[in-house]
# Entry
Amino acid sequence: FCRWRFTFYLYIFTYGVRFLKKTPWLWNTRQCWNGYPYQPLMPDLHYYYIVELSFYWSLMFSQFIDIKRKDFGIMFTHHILAVTLLSFSYVTNLIRVGTLMLCLHDASDIVLEAAKMANYCKCQKLSDLLFVTFAIVFIVSRLGIYPLWILNTTLFELYEALGNFPALWVFNVLLVILQILNCFWSYLIIKVAYKAVSKGKVTKDDRSDIESSSDEEETVPRSKTLHSTITTNGTSGANGTNGYLTGGTCSEEH
# Structure
């Protein structure tokens, strides 16, 4: 799962950057609303959106066959929110700003999956370094760039350009809920990152202990050496793409 998600995030983030750098709305977010709602659906944009939407649908369903963790409820809420955001923005043609959100949220997930793979390869120092890097990228992108760039244009520039209409309120409510989830996950990440820096290793995140009654899992001996197992959770961004360090297997989705 880790290698698959790392490959996907790396591919889709690279695709998003290559696509967006040719668009005017990357450099000027007011272009997201220029000509709305009669904006053409370019093939590259359509492909980007459909692939991301398909991925988040897969995460939502695969959660039921993966190992259940304490954060199952909030993870499921995140997946429903991501699918709803993508679907709603696609139907209402708010896809230009949607592409910005997806690319922004995918950035940190690449580092997270790399950290998990390093952990499973028992490269603990590399895993810890990657996790701290992930924490920095996550907090900067989702607590800094996301509200100042994405929420600014949807809450203010969109209203200035087009006035008031029902889809605006629905879209912004969904985006604000996503930001609340980002704040919650950032708090958890900061706790783990602080332990990583202060103690020299990433410790287990109690939030995601395995909740399973299977005899097989109960009888698996725990290593005396602290090794972190990092889980995911996510957005896109639409970010998506957020969960993090656990003592279980790599089965949690973005």
